Task: structure prediction
Amino acid sequence: MSKNASEIVLRALHTKQGADLDVYAFFIKGSDIIKIADLSRIGRDEDESLKGFQRPEIKSHIKGIADYISKGDVLFPNAIILAMSPQIRFVASRGTKASGDEGLSQSGTLTIPIYNEGHRVAWIVDGQQRSLALSQVKKNELVVPVVGFVSDNLMMQREQFILVNKARPLPNRLINELLPETIGITLPKDLAARKVPSEICNLLNKDPASPFFKLIKRPSDKSQSDANITDSAIVTMVRNSINNPLGALAPYKANSRENADLVTMYKLLTNFWSAVKSTFPQAWGKDPKQSRLMHSVGIIAMGVLMDRIYGRLSGNECDQKALQVELARISNACRWTEGTWESLGIAWNEIQNTPRDIKKLQDELVRAYTSGSRQ
Result:
């Protein structure tokens, strides 16, 4: 491996994968990775478009890796995965093909330009904590493996990031926010099932006409001070309704003939939750510590009531006013911001986001609704 002030030159193996994508495998000094690759942090630009995909760094994790590397003779076989710009250059080696070589890869020389931070020709898809740790160790000559695929398409980079990290403890909220941005890839079955709820959550937060407009907290939002609802609560509420055979959203999920009807799902959700907002104005928009309606337990439990209410109404009775009439049947029984849930014997702020409490609250809401419907 050699280098000058503006580029790094390495021996590498080249092959093709996917839709004729160039893929390279090579070794590089660990301290040089951040010279050629940027970290693509997840965030939002001024137009609220999602940018990047990496979660924030975990300082304790980085320190632990750095301490390990500093011990000297260590084994570091885990490859860093990079997305690389077409600006890199590869020249295949000349020579006679070795006997028995199946021709799966080509050896050669890979030249990687060095640019300033924010303009580098590669992005770290997997291994950000390791890369940062490697950069912090002084006099670090450790050579580490790297696999890089050539694509400056941010969507593809996000897709690879999700798939690479799927079996690792990647935060669910981060996956939820990235999934709506993946298009044209065949996701594993479990991730595919999560994509529609994540897309709807994204729409609910971005649409000014939505009752949830800018109220949903997402990993990329750093300055959205009014956001007080966890995105995972919205995703869970939507997914539960889709997966319940009697759920309000279930008739509109994807099947073998048609894609999911997001327009109808979105309309049903905005109508119902707008009616909730009108029925409980004093509890809406507050911090979950001040209102259990904004808490995950309230969002998920009210989603169950939504299924019950829509199951009772016919298609032409599902506007917001009709929904407000239905919700009025439970209003006197609800204790979102103060008091005690009488049938449960639980203070309003003692209900927590646990399966047991969610079940208790959803049963109480359905009971109050059923009792109110008989009056």
Summary: The chain has two domains: 2-165, 172-374. The first strand starts at residue 2 and ends at 4. Confidence is low (pLDDT under 50) at residues 50-55. Residues 355-374 form the longest helix (20 residues).
